[in-house]
Design brief:
By secondary structure, this protein is mostly beta strands. It has 5 helices and 49 strands. The strands form 9 sheets. It has a 22-stranded antiparallel β-barrel.
Length: 851
């Protein structure tokens, strides 16, 4: 609901019980926000998304900061979301709630309606939550506990794509299940006056059945179980030392593990994953199954002192000094499949629920081998920080917040190499004017610099430990299942086809033979730029006006501008050189990973907040943000958070005007999301209905989101129109990129639908016994079942993917012609799945008791 926040990031919530679009704050990439629960960083290491380490009914308050952020916070570029959980007290209190949802209660989604099908299943999903706070020793020791158990089975279906010869594909129904258990405990003690000790622990275990790393699967054979244990611990001590001197210290940690317990068949027939590159569908062995568990942890230590100082004419000061050490570690071994093999093909044959591979010998089928060259080791990334912050009041009219923060990196790769030891200062200044001296009209202006930590993916960019190599061979044996019109009885099964394919592969020497379609060794041709990586940072300037509305409300308007700098970049040019020959005799162009200000990202916004209470029964509030996010690189993609920009890779073969033009930051024709949302508004009201018995409130939330941008982007091959200045090009497809992107339109030329939605809720409570009350909570989301399009197909065809119908062109001298050099795909600008529409009307019912 906060202005400056949207959910337009990629849908890739690692370890979440319910993956959802990632949150973006003030124009930053989604992995650069800071999420805290009781002071514990709950961002997961890879994609930076918040993990579900909370129980809703145990939350005391949530604070969202989107700008003008104190120097007490660091290691972010976007915003800070800080959650505090409840504590026990002298009076026992608690609650129990059951929440019911059911697919059958929802409206049929727009995509299924267009196909004339209904995939809703009458399967009740139930979530149970309980809380209990009580005194262990009155006025000395208090306890708080909470639990949440959810059985969330969700019916899903694969939809095989009808390709050439596939006349009767039938969806294969299966149930994806999520069983989740969350537990929380907190103990608070006051051993002496002015001293408090708090220990809190939250544990979340998620068990998934029929999980697929990529849901675009053709057979249930690609499904596997997965377990994700997750926990946090916080130990906090605070105390008043003397008079106005206050000390606080905390140690916290988060532990997270991913255990993909899928089939562990190491033989090529049962352990090989098959990828249909034409239909982007998968079958065979599950992806990333059978590997050892991956661990993603962090530990934080901080100490803080604060004191109040009266300096006479120099004002009243609230001074805060602090030190913080944040250390995160990752241990991840990326076995692509349990056998180490993946076979790429271009045409699967689907007959009903049966799937047959088609291994052609015309160069379109590739055998990939992905061995782990060096075992995985931990990736340690440490940030040491010190800060000082002064909140000063200068009389009745002026106040200021002055801060300075220093963050120092010690980041190492999984191979143990130093990646970054850089440090950076972050000044923060905020000045406020109260012209009347009564707090009813305020003006403020600020400047702030925010510096983030080094991202683990960049730290491991040049490391071989835990990362798979890639050796590829073009299949040249007998054509297998090439006649798509053959009767089913004449087709080889998946196991028979793989056995025949690998028999040919063994006949040419197998993995000991020379790769015929390329090879790459992790970290071999990539290095960190001399001097190491620097932390990206953002400069922010803002100004705001806030005014009281009578005695019952307020309105605030803010203008904010951010400029993001020192973003990650890859460089391959004539100065970076080549590698020595690898074991197969291949020579590679060296890529340097560093920072570059060629990458532009700028955010401008005008934000409005208002709130008003109309008497004792009705209250209303609204937020609105106009924003514009511009640049020349998006910075993240689905399932792949931090990425380095390729703007400096092979510069002779690119021009910024058509390869990376500056403009609206959208999905670049690749990802089904767009960070640039021009208008976003939320308005809500709560009305207390007078009843003779019990209490009833009715609330409504109205939402508006303007359409998201996309453009026409296709792949071209610029190599024929440039003379090679000396780059390596082994086997004809390494070195110089075979394809680069070409913007046939300006960024953001097209827009999806504007989205409006009305949500309503009803809360009814009835006094029961003493302080206890029964309650019913009912919610309807998207009450009017609006079906706006939120994402579309962005396929653009060129000579790279349709060489028979389209002609190549010289991108440096020619202007491409529609219908000759490129054309929009047959579904361009159209929704192609349920996820491309806003969610249909859904209903949720909760009942419980609280005291």
């Amino acid at each position: 609901l906060a202005p400056g926040v949207n959910e337009n990031g990629p849908t890739s919530s690692l370890g979440s019980a319910s993956p959802h679009p990632a949150v973006m704050i003030s124009g930053a990439v989604s992995y650069e926000n800071l999420f805290l629960v009781d002071g514990v960083v709950v961002n997961e290491n890879l994609r930076g998304q918040p993990q579900d380490l909370f129980i809703e009914d145990a939350i005391q308050e949530t604070t969202v900061q989107t700008g003008r952020i104190s120097a007490e916070y660091g290691r972010f570029l976007g915003g800070v979301v800080d959650v505090a959980t409840r504590s026990g007290g002298n009076r026992p209190s608690g609650s129990f709630r059951t929440t019911f949802t059911n697919s059958a209660w929802s409206a049929n989604d727009a995509y299924d309606r267009s196909l004339g099908v209904d995939n809703r299943v009458d399967h009740p999903d139930e979530t149970y939550e309980a809380t209990l706070g009580f005194p262990v020793w009155k006025d000395r020791v208090w306890a708080f506990t909470a639990a949440r158990i959810a059985d969330l089975g969700q019916s899903m279906e694969t939809r095989p794509l009808a390709l050439r010869g596939n006349t009767d594909p039938v969806p294969i129904p299966y149930t994806y299940g999520r069983d989740e258990r969350r537990l929380e405990g907190k103990l608070t003690t006051a051993p002496a006056p002015g001293v408090s000790l708090v220990a809190s622990y939250i544990d979340n275990r998620l068990d998934e059945t029929n999980y697929a790393f990529n849901r675009a699967i053709l057979s249930t054979e690609s499904l596997m179980p997965r377990t994700l244990p997750n926990s946090l611990l916080a130990l906090n001590a605070t105390g008043v030392v003397s008079g106005s001197l206050f000390l606080e210290g905390q140690y916290s940690r988060r532990r997270f593990e991913i255990d993909q317990g899928g089939p562990d068949f190491t033989d090529p027939v049962r352990g090989t994953h098959i990828f249909d590159s034409t239909g982007f569908r998968r079958f065979g062995a599950p992806q990333f199954s059978g590997q050892s568990p991956s661990r993603f942890d962090n530990d934080t230590w901080f100490a803080k002192a604060s004191t109040l100082v009266s300096a006479g004419s120099l004002g009243e000061h609230d001074l805060r000094f602090g030190y913080e050490r944040f250390a995160e570690t990752s241990l991840e071994q990326n076995d692509v499949s349990s056998s180490g093999f993946v076979v790429d093909e271009t045409r699967s044959i689907v007959r009903g629920t049966q799937v047959f591979p088609s291994f052609q010998n015309d160069g379109s089928t590739t055998i990939e081998w992905h061995p782990i060259v060096s075992p995985a080791r931990e990736t340690p990334i440490v940030t040491d920080s010190v800060y000082v912050n002064d909140r000063v009041q200068l009389g009745r009219h002026w106040s200021a917040n002055l801060g300075l923060r220093w963050d120092k990196n010690d980041a190492r790769s999984s191979s143990g190499a130093l990646v970054s030891d850089s440090g950076a200062l972050s000044p923060r200044f905020d000045v406020r004017l109260d012209p009347r001296g009564d707090g009813r009209l305020l003006f403020d202006a600020s400047y702030g610099k925010y510096v983030t930590k080094i991202h683990p993916r960049l730290a491991n960019a040049a490391s071989s430990a835990g990362n798979p190599a890639d050796f590829e061979w073009k299949y040249a044996g007998p054509c297998i299942n090439c006649d798509v019109s053959a009767p089913t009885s004449a087709l080889l099964s998946k196991d028979q086809a793989l056995a025949q394919l690998f028999a040919w592969f063994d006949s040419i020497g197998g993995t000991a033979g020379m790769p015929t379609a390329g090879a790459s060794l992790p970290g071999y041709s990539t290095r960190i730029a001399p001097g190491g990586l620097r932390s990206p940072y953002a400069n922010e300037i803002s100004a705001g006006i806030e005014s009281a509305l009578g005695s019952s409300g307020f309105v605030r308007v803010d203008g904010l501008y951010r400029d993001y700098r020192d973003q990650y970049s890859g460089t391959i040019d004539t100065t970076t050189g080549q590698t020595p020959p690898d074991p197969f005799g291949n020579v590679y162009d060296v890529e340097e990973i560093g920072n570059s200000d060629r990458i532009k990202r700028r955010y401008a916004a005008l934000q409005l907040q208002a709130q008003y209470r109309f008497g004792a029964r009705l209250s209303a509030a609204a937020t609105y943000a106009w924003s514009h996010l511009t640049g020349n690189f998006i910075g993240e993609y689905n399932r792949n958070s931090a990425t380095w920009a390729p703007l400096n890779e092979y510069p002779e073969y690119k021009q910024a005007r058509w390869n990376s033009p500056y403009g609206d930051i959208t999905g670049e024709g690749i990802s089904p999301f767009s960070p640039d949302e021009r208008h976003r508004a939320r308005a809500w009201a709560i009305y207390q209905v007078p009843l003779r018995r019990g209490n009833l409130s009715v609330s409504a939330l109205e939402e508006f989101d303007s359409g998201l941008g996309y453009e026409a982007v296709g792949s071209i091959d610029p190599r024929p129109y440039r003379v090679n200045p000396g780059y390596a090009d082994p086997l004809g497809n390494a070195g110089i990129p075979g394809t680069v992107q070409y913007f046939f339109t300006r960024p953001g030329k097209y827009r999806t639908d504007d989205i409006t939605q009305t949500d309503v809720a009803l809360d009814w409570s009835l006094p029961a016994y003493r302080s206890a009350e029964l309650f019913v909570h009912a919610q309807v989301f998207n009450l009017f079942n609006q079906a706006g399009v939120v994402a579309v197909d962005t396929t653009v065809l060129t000579a790279r993917n349709d060489p028979k119908a389209l002609a190549p062109f010289d991108p440096f001298n020619d202007k491409p012609k529609a219908g000759v050099n490129y054309r929009l795909g047959p579904n361009f600008g159209k929704p192609t799945s349920s996820a491309d529409y806003q969610s249909p009307r859904t209903f949720e019912l909760g009942i419980g008791v609280r005291f």
